[in-house]
Amino acid sequence: MKAAVYDVEGAPGVLQYVDVPDPVAGPDDVLISVEAISIEGGDLINRRSTPPPFPSWIVGYAAAGTVVAVGSKVCSRKVGDRVTAFSMQGSHAERWAVPAERT
Q1: CA distance 69 to 97
Q2: By three-state DSSP, how is residue 13 classified?
Q3: pLDDT digits over 64-79, tens only?
Q4: pTM
Q5: Rounded CA gap, 40 and 19, in Å?
Q6: What angle do CA 42, 103, 94 make, to 5 degrees?
């Protein structure tokens, strides 16, 4: 899948649009097919001034889309639900695994 990532902090030019492995929903997660993202102030501040904790760090705190898979412990969401979500990273990608409680 494609995602917006960075390997070093800096100006917008450090962002890359690359192929990364598909995320997998854990037992408490939903997997979202991302249809819209939100660019938050923290996205900009962190990209500019904070080294990413891992290579190919997928940026983004917020997105909306459709649930395409649910973890084994999730009862509050089902495949096909349209959701918004907020978590600490990973929303700027084609798919995003996020705790169901954050949707």
Answers
A1: 9
A2: helix
A3: 999 999 999 999 999 9
A4: 0.92
A5: 23
A6: 70
